[in-house]
Amino acid sequence: MAVPSDSIVEKQPTPAERRAADFVPAIEVQNLEMGYGSYVLMSNITFTVTAGEVLVIMGGSGCGKSTLLKYLIGLKEVEKGEILYHGRSFSKASPEEQVEMQRIFGVLYQGGALWSALTLAENVALPLEQYTRLSAREIAEVVSIKLALVGLKGFEEFYPAEISGGMRKRAGLARAMALDPGLLFFDEPSAGLDPITSRRLDDLILRLRDSLGTTIVVVTHELPSIFSIADTSIFLDAETKQMIAHGDPRELVKEGRSDPKVREFLLRGDPAKTPIGLPRENESEVHSRPKVQG
Ligand SMILES: Nc1ncnc2c1ncn2[C@@H]1O[C@H](COP(=O)(O)OP(=O)(O)OP(=O)(O)O)[C@@H](O)[C@H]1O
Ligand SMILES: [Mg+2]
Q1: Which CATH superfamily includes the segment(s) 25-104+230-274?
Q2: Burial 64-102 (b: 16+ CB within 10 A, else e)
Q3: Residue identifier of the C-alpha nearest atom 30 of ligand 1
Q4: pTM score, two decimals?
Q5: Per-domain residue ranges of the chain
Q6: What tens digit of pLDDT does each residue of 27-52 get?
Q7: Which of 66, 185, 217 is the pocket-test mutation for ligand 1 (most atoms within 8 Å of CB)?
Q8: Contact (CB, 8 A) for 74 and 152
Q9: What is the rounded CA–CA span in Å between residue 252 and residue 255?
């Protein structure tokens, strides 16, 4: 007699399992080795970034943050390890395929790097002219929207030399966003900006993430930025030439959750300090405590 079996039913994946199986990270870096010539800068870099999340790359000066961005955007060829975008290998793709994949990338380099002979409007228009079939009028419209987004409305006809460093950086951001990229790479976007402009930039990054679902990779040392924008982070350590942390910085900063070097970085060397940008624990209690008279 056949034994009734519900094994078929049992084998059906649950919705959660199905979602997990379907889950493909936007960015996947596997055992990447970074270096210049025969010099190995860092090895075994492995991390993932979920689509629509902000990854912050942290670490001391000279540890290899900008170099990692160069690998991620294809400016440096991967020799060991692999980089995948949405499950598709970028590092093993042909040069033509890489160019195709790079079309969804928007990049702001550490120096801001605008074309000095072009006005801000012309700088932002350049990728639109290169990669789209938009008419001159449509391009002008997109350009003014992007410049307005970074607070540079009215500066369309200015040349880079005629504006401040912070404004140049914001113009660089507008150019990086020109094509509504699915992936944005920013190398120290708020360095050299005043705290208010820097805060606006963080808000802009969060708006891009939340309204357009953009996946964003940001190199930054600024603690308020790290704690306000990062969904996840990695920490590169020059001393051990390893990535020594991966996770939400709000968790990594807690005692015992990460290498002491990471905590020290996030607390700026003072373990007794409350992380800048994070609400103090029991803050409401502190405020509600009655004042001692006398
Ligand atoms: N083109 C290059 N050729 C050889 N070595 C390089 C090159 N660019 C960078 N390096 C070296 O690689 C290391 C990492 O440099 P990188 O610019 O990635 O550091 P970083 O973490 O971005 O530093 P910072 O915070 O100062 O911007 C440094 O020691 C640097 O001297
Ligand atoms: Mg750098």
Answers
A1: P-loop containing nucleotide triphosphate hydrolases (3.40.50.300)
A2: bbebbbbbbbbebebeebebbbbeebbbebeeeebeebb
A3: 62
A4: 0.84
A5: 25-104+230-274
A6: 999 999 999 999 999 999 999 999 99
A7: 66
A8: no
A9: 8
